[in-house]
Design goal:
The complex is a heterodimer of chains A (657) and B (100).
Chain A: H1 11-26, H2 32-59, E1 65-75, E2 78-86, H3 88-111, H4 118-137, H5 141-159, H6 166-197, H7 202-209, H8 222-237, H9 246-249, H10 255-264, H11 269-276, H12 278-282, H13 285-306, H14 312-332, H15 336-363, H16 381-395, H17 401-415, H18 420-445, H19 463-478, H20 493-502, H21 507-510, H22 515-546, H23 550-557, H24 559-566, H25 571-618, H26 626-656
Antiparallel strand pairs in A: 1-2
Chain B: H1 4-24, H2 28-53, H3 57-87
Helix pairs in contact in B: 1-2, 2-3
The chains are: A mainly alpha (657), B mainly alpha (100).
Chain lengths: 657, 100
């Protein structure tokens, strides 16, 4: 559908790339101000370009815009172009990425101002924006995969930003390698789709898929296999079971990075891909069930780990894993709109939580352990207020953003056939979420002061950091109103907006109930969810403010459980024993000591030794003795003479006979 | 008239003697003399061919060879005298500093 508008779509991703290039190539000796101008300028312009693109998109009636800018790979019938597209889903993603990204850029100018490698940081951050925008704007799987890998690269670079610290560079490698496992599946999924349908362009592919029959539970046809392979990639990128292990370690990166990449945008790419490919997933019942179960299990599993972590950023990291699980749960039960909605609200409040945590860490001069905080609420009021809003939002208190999005996911889970166990686990997770988030708040901001005031001078952060906090806090409050459920009196604008993409996927479960029944059901579920959140809040209040000695007692009495949770179910250790160790042994004993040293080095060294040995023999002819040379000359001359006169000699010999 | 191949056979014998002496002898002066012998064997062949074909180029060449040989003798004898002065020996085995 060629339209004359939106010709400048390419400029949205290209601006941050330009910023990254300028800062990366020339910024080394620039003062921070110039680096700021370039980095913030390119991101701000990109945000404005995105706003303009969205305006044009609305102006032309919200129809899918598909732009082919140039051919990238053309081979036979295969074509992968630099094609960008804009539809309702892209609108949401682009605005979240550029908007939240811009705010975090502003924050980072304050947070990173004392750090070395300032230009490098912003260059990477802009590079990340470029790849993320390519990812969400891409109109085919191949270009999407470019963005997909690119954000992985940027993530690797930024996790390992403090590369002199071994744990940081290890964490970067871990993230990269774990993501490769998922990407392996993603690529196989792409190959399978191309082999079956002959195209990887979203519009063409989905149009071809539409008429195919659905695969019911237990049938492993093309759609099931392709969806599960794509989901494997999504699991890696979005840190789902069993590939979530890299995300908590990724907290080694600077806090703005944790907020932008490992909370708000990159890790949601998996959810985006599942939502983008929803036609494939809905064609396979098995794939949907797997997505829902994996999402639900991850949500619960990560929440339990989050209960006992003491590092403020790690709590948030497990919380992120858990919330991503919710999004997949939403997708898995067919409520793609709700999943994407939670993605958006989560981007707001989780970015806010991370930035506020960064502000706390900044105030504490680098301390991240909550056991050494406490009583900060008076000293850093703005940080406390914004963080409290975000906590209320993520815990699901109305009328903040998280309440609506979580509620619509849980509601959808409740309404699908056989979804009650999913709903129950989701609800329990909501309770746990509320508990560990308020545990974080109480440990950090309330209670007794547990740090040495003489050593740590607690100070509020500069306005470049607080500004984004306040804006995100406002978004965390009002962001949910876009999709207020009907009993709330509002309209579900968000789902209606995304309806052209996800269509009636949501309607399956609801069709059976009358409108009034739906209302009362939604109201009941909402009340139950709020009640769960209140229990979590009350428990945290009681344990960490009323009875501060109690948690340690409980931890002691339930030591095996506590240790298991504290050590994250020993998953890292299990992976180490099951995969890393054998692989290391194989690499060391076979690949290194046999194949590399013996075979490869042996061949190379053998050739060298052979040449030396030959030389050793032949050098004897070059004795330096003049007379031996003379002998060679004579012998050579005689040989030539004999060769030249051979016919004559033969003739004479013949004649003699 | 003496047939040409007589000259050529004589020339070959002289050249062969020169070559053998060059290889076998150790005294530098003897080696030098054997080189002269080889040069003159060649001169003989030139002159013989010149006369056989009735052309003058062979004899011209001989003159060149004599000139070069004279120059060579001058340089060579100079070197030999220096070797004698420095090493008090004319044995070629002693002049092998560059040898491996």
């Amino acid at each position: 559908m060629p339209t004359p508008i939106l010709d400048i779509l390419w400029i949205i991703p290209l601006l941050p790339l330009l910023g990254a290039a300028i800062n990366g190539l020339f910024g080394k000796n620039w003062p921070n101000k110039i680096v700021n101008t370039v980095a913030l300028g390119s991101t701000a312009l990109s945000f404005l370009a995105a706003l303009e693109a969205v305006r044009e998109f609305f102006e032309q009636g919200q129809r899918l815009v598909h732009k082919e800018f140039f051919d990238w790979i053309v081979a036979g019938s295969f074509r992968a172009g630099f094609d960008l597209q804009m539809d309702q889903l892209t609108v949401v993603m682009v605005l979240v990425v550029t908007g939240v990204g811009f705010l975090i850029h502003i924050y980072a100018t304050g947070y990173m101002s004392h750090e070395g490698g300032y230009y490098r940081f912003f260059s990477y951050l802009n590079l990340f924006m470029f790849f993320m925008l390519i990812l969400v704007l891409a109109a085919n799987y191949v270009l999407l995969f470019v963005g997909w890998e690119g954000v992985g690269l940027a993530s690797y670079l930024l996790i390992g930003f403090y590369f002199l610290k071994k744990s940081a560079s290890d964490a970067g490698k871990k993230a990269f390698i774990v993501n490769r496992i998922g990407d392996f599946g993603f690529m196989l999924g792409m190959f399978l789709l191309f082999k079956t349908f002959g195209t990887l362009d979203f519009t063409q592919l989905f149009a071809k898929v539409e008429p195919w029959s659905h695969e019911s539970w237990g049938i492993f046809g093309t759609f099931t296999v392709a969806s599960l392979l794509l989901f494997m990639g999504a699991c890696g990128k979005s840190a789902q079971l069993p590939l979530y292990v890299w995300l908590p370690d990724a907290m080694e990166g600077p806090t703005p990075v944790s907020a932008l990449i490992h909370a708000a945008t990159m890790v949601t790419a998996g959810v985006y891909v599942v939502a983008r490919s929803h036609i494939l997933f809905t064609h396979s019942e098995t794939a949907m069930v797997v997505v829902a179960i994996v999402g639900c299990a991850t949500a619960f599993f990560a929440a339990t780990i989050g209960l006992v972590q003491t590092d403020i950023k790690r709590v948030l990291a497990y919380s992120t894993v858990s919330q991503l699980g919710y999004m997949f749960l939403g997708c898995g039960v067919g409520a793609f709109g709700a999943g994407i909605f939670h993605l958006m609200t989560h981007a707001f409040f989780k970015a806010l939580l991370f930035l506020a945590a960064g502000s706390v860490i900044h105030a504490m001069g680098g301390e991240q352990d909550m056991r050494h905080m406490g009583g900060l609420s008076k000293k850093i009021k703005w940080t406390y207020a914004t963080m409290l809003i975000a906590t209320l939002a993520i815990a699901g208190f109305p009328p903040l953003a998280g309440f609506f999005s979580k509620d619509s996911i849980l509601g959808a889970a409740f309404q699908i056939p056989g979804g009650h166990p999913l709903y129950a686990v989701g609800l329990l997770t909501a309770l746990l979420t509320s508990f560990y988030m308020f545990r974080l708040i109480f440990l950090t901001f309330h209670g007794k002061q547990r740090y040495d005031e003489h050593h740590i001078h607690v100070h509020e952060s500069p306005w470049s950091m607080l500004g984004p906090l306040v804006i995100l806090a406002v978004l965390s409050i009002i962001g949910g109103w876009l999709a207020a459920p009907s009993f709330w009196g509002g309209e579900d604008h968000f789902t209606a907006f995304l309806a052209p993409i996800f269509g009636g996927a949501h309607a399956e479960g609801e069709a059976a109930l009358s409108e009034a029944a739906v209302h009362s059901l939604e109201l009941t579920l909402a009340v139950v969810a709020v009640f769960a959140a209140l229990i979590g809040l009350a428990t945290a209040f009681w344990l960490y403010l009323r009875q501060p000695g109690k948690p340690a007692e409980i931890a002691k009495s339930l030591k095996p459980v506590y240790d298991t949770l504290y050590n994250k179910y020993y998953v890292d250790e299990a992976y180490g024993a099951a995969i890393v160790k054998p692989l290391l042994a194989l690499s060391t004993n076979v690949l290194w000591k046999v194949i590399d040293v013996e075979a490869i080095d042996g061949t190379v060294n053998g050739i060298a030794h052979g040449a030396a040995a030959t030389g050793d023999v032949t050098r004897r002819t070059q004795s330096g003795n003049t007379r031996s040379y003379a002998v060679w000359v004579v012998v050579g001359a005689l040989t030539i003479l004999i060769i030249v006169f051979w016919p004559a000699i033969r003739a004479i010999a013949g004649g003699a006979k | 008239m003496v047939p040409t191949h007589y000259y050529l056979i004589l020339s070959a014998i002289l050249f062969g003697l020169g070559a053998v002496a060059f290889v076998v002898k150790r005294n530098i002066i003897t080696i030098f003399m054997s080189i002269e012998l080889m040069l003159n064997a060649v001169n003989l062949a030139f002159v013989a061919f010149s006369q056989a074909f009735g052309r003058v180029e062979g004899q011209v060449f001989v003159l060149f060879v004599i000139v070069v040989a004279a120059a060579e003798a001058a340089v060579g004898l100079g070197i030999i005298i220096l070797i004698q002065r420095n090493r008090q020996s004319l044995n070629i085995e002693k002049v092998s500093l560059l040898k491996l």
